[in-house]
Each structure stands twice: as structure tokens, then as C-alpha cells.
Design a protein that fits this description.
This is 4Fe-4S domain-containing protein. Keywords: 4Fe-4S, Iron, Iron-sulfur, Metal-binding. It comes from Archaeoglobus fulgidus. GO terms for molecular function: 4 iron, 4 sulfur cluster binding; metal ion binding. InterPro entries: 4Fe-4S_dom, Ac-CoA_synth_d_su_TIM-brl. By secondary structure, the chain is of the alpha/beta class. It is globular, with a radius of gyration of 18 Å. Helix 2 runs antiparallel to helix 7. It is built from 7 helices and 7 strands. The chain has a domain of 112 residues: Rossmann fold, CATH 3.40.50. The strands form 2 sheets. It has a 5-stranded mixed sheet, with helices on one face. Helix 6 links the parallel strand 6 and strand 7.
Length: 210
């Protein structure tokens, strides 16, 4: 699915679907239905999508609330256009430090920009492995078979620099998890929407809740 996006010059271009509708905020809530926020957890998860602030839940930590709010707000600041041609970037490991989480993504510039924007706004240090997907975004690369274990294997030496327990593949590539895990060990399947990455990483213990 695509969305119409008005450019600064007044023209119209297609905006890529970043799968915001696939975010399930309910799984990040306490699920005790205390109604201190005025709703059940299931109801509140839907209210969050409407712009309610996560701080209304007293059981969320400051950082959890911050990252949930970021996922909601990302719909406003992540604008990825649909291009008529593929665009390739350099491939390889963008290294921060060994103990940081490592995100595997496509060599499509707008995908990298969207992921980086979310992670930087969240203040999370990360490594990024950019694999050769022929310049396609992750969803198209998965569909065409370019986001594969075979292609990731080309960068196995570079991945020796990172913590193998903290390697995350995009949620859209979940069907390749077993094949990729045979090469790298048990990789983690991340969320489908990159805006969800900070809260996902936090709740799965891949970054500290401080």
C-alpha cells in the first residue's frame, strides 16, 4: 500500500507504507487492566494510535513511555518516497561498538535513513549491517528473494566484530530466520515497522531500561 505525499513544490509523490498499522502496542503494556489510565490495556493500546500519551499508564517506565510515544510520532517524521528505480548504497558493516545491537538491513538509502532516524531519536547506539539487496527496500527484497541467508553470509567476517546474541533481522524477513540462524546463530526477528524498534529492543532486554 502507498500513501499520497505532497512535496514542498506542491507536487504529489507516493509515500511508502512503513507498516505503522502493524504495530501492536498492547504487547508492551502491563496487561493488568487496572484502568488507572481510564481504559483497559487493550483499549489503551488503541488510544495510543489516536495520539494518547503513553505516560497515562503509571506502570510504564519513563523510557518505555518515551519509546512508545516515539513509535506513534514516527508517522509524522518518517517520510519515505516510492521511487521508480532502485537506488544502491555501499554495503558492509557500519560499526559502533561490539556490545551494541546489530540491525541487518537493505542497501536502499531510504530504508537505512528511516531506521537510523528512529534509533538516533531514541538515543540508542547500534551497528548496522547493510547487505546487497540490489538497491531494493526490505519488503521488496524479501519478496524478490534478495534478502536471504546466502547474501548475509557474504558479510560473515565483518560480523565477527559484533555480539552475535544481539543481531536483529527485520520482521518482514521472519521466514528466513532459520536459514540465517544456521549461519549466524540464533538471530532475533525484529518488528515489521522500524518505528517500533526502540520499544522492541527495550522490552526484549537488548538495551538497558535506564
Amino acid at each position: 500500500m502507498s500513501i499520497m505525499l505532497k512535496t514542498r513544490s506542491g507536487g504529489i509523490c507516493l509515500k511508502a507504507d512503513l507498516y505503522f498499522d502493524r504495530i501492536d502496542f498492547y504487547k508492551y503494556l502491563p496487561k493488568i487492566d487496572c484502568r488507572d489510565c481510564g481504559f483497559t490495556c487493550r483499549e489503551f493500546s488503541e488510544k495510543l494510535k489516536m495520539g494518547y500519551r503513553a505516560e497515562r499508564c503509571p506502570y510504564l517506565t519513563k523510557r518505555e513511555a518515551e519509546f512508545i510515544n516515539l513509535a506513534v510520532e514516527a508517522k509524522e517524521f518518517l517520510n519515505v518516497p516510492i521511487l521508480q528505480t532502485t537506488v544502491k548504497t555501499k554495503t558492509g558493516l557500519v560499526f559502533s561498538r561490539r556490545g551494541a545491537v546489530t540491525l541487518i538491513t537493505a542497501n536502499y538509502p531510504y530504508t537505512q535513513a528511516a531506521v537510523s532516524e528512529v534509533m538516533i531519536r531514541a538515543g540508542i547506539e547500534f551497528n548496522m549491517l547493510i547487505i546487497d539487496t540490489e538497491g531494493y527496500s526490505v519488503d521488496m527484497a524479501v519478496f524478490l528473494g534478495y534478502f536471504s541467508a546466502e547474501r548475509i553470509a557474504e558479510y560473515i567476517e565483518e560480523l565477527e566484530k559484533v555480539d552475535k546474541r544481539k543481531i536483529v533481522i527485520p520482521g518482514l524477513a521472519e521466514r528466513f530466520k532459520d536459514e540465517i540462524s544456521e549461519i549466524l546463530g540464533d538471530v532475533i526477528v525484529g518488528p515489521v515497522c522500524c518505528a517500533e524498534l526502540p520499544i522492541f529492543l527495550l522490552k526484549n532486554g537488548l538495551i538497558n531500561n535506564i
